[in-house]
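Can anyone check this?
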Amino acid sequence: MTTQELLRRAKGAKSAMAMADTQTKNRALRAMAEALADNTQSILTANGLDVIEAKGTVSPVMLDRLALNEERVFSMAQGIRDVAALPDPVGAVLRREVRPNGLVMEKTAVPMGVIAIIYESRPNVTSDAAALALKAGSACVLRCGKQAHRSAAAIVTALRQGLSGAGLPQDALGLVEDATRQSAHELMTAAGLVDLLIPRGGAGLIRACVDNATVPVIETGTGICHIYVDRDADLDMALSIVENAKCSRPSVCNAAEVCLVHREIAGAFLPRLKGRLVEARGRAGLPPVELRLDAAAAKVIAGTPAGPDAFDTEFLDHILAVKVVDGVEEACGHIAAHSTGHSEAIVTRDEGAAQRFIRAVDSAAVYWNASTRFTDGGEFGLGCEMGISTQRLHARGPMGLAELCSYKYVVRGTGQVR
């Protein structure tokens, strides 16, 4: 099936999805979760072929994002069930006002229509995106990276079984068969067929969508996330936060890429940082973190000199850029110049410093004494997420069900004329 045919079918199914009541959508989601679990082995077989083909062409951390196992498939199914358990946003009255002339005006949440998602080689995005879009009353068209296409196809086949079993049209969920750039461009320019485009992936994919789309697009995902360790930080806490933010899953957008350290504690903190992220991890058989140091940090510890792009790179790997700064103001200035607006953190016991940081940093999520790894739909209580919006219009931060709805005004009168 061509991409245009897939989009036309999705458009044809969007009315049925918009009219579906909460019980029908939840029944479909639960059936989709069961179908996913029932088809675990076929999904793992397809994924195994994707992994074999990708070996040697991507980094180990990116290969980990691609690989599935029974536990991950179970988590995907549970994510769909979690979405089914969430309140239905469609039809919610966001604001109600009775005008002096007696008109009752209700700002009411409505489905987007057809949501297209372009994403890279993360099979779990397939089920997350489908569940959220369908619960929000929209049809969903998915276009994944070629490295995960077999996996995504097996997942979508299972999900469509559950969807039709609950009496909703299978065409409300589709996977683009063409994995070339042409199909991505078709989605970006499908005015009249796509109501919202959401890219999930690296900076190149997101920039291509923002620059070329003629349909509405939400900018998501690229995460040059910073952690600033203030002079009044609890150093043990700071070490734990930095290690978690960098190492727990370095290939995701909420992983830390830059550590800024106050000059007054650099002599005490940086040797401990190297000991924790490099030496201790090496002894434990874990991948050590490559520290890319500015000139001031390099005077304190040994590491790789920070190149000209070190503070503007989303490494998505066991690499951390380190810079020494004079205080909160310089840290905030550096973040303003280099951040992608995703997630930033300050570690400090000084409430005044924390509040200055929180007010000055203009990112979707700002943390005080916590890891940036919490910027996630599940952690924010939204269920699984569609992505992390780094723009200011319509949606910002983790995008759950509410962010996948538009709204209209329903106005009730008793014969009023103007």
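Reply from J.R.: I decoded it. The chain has 14 helices and 16 strands.
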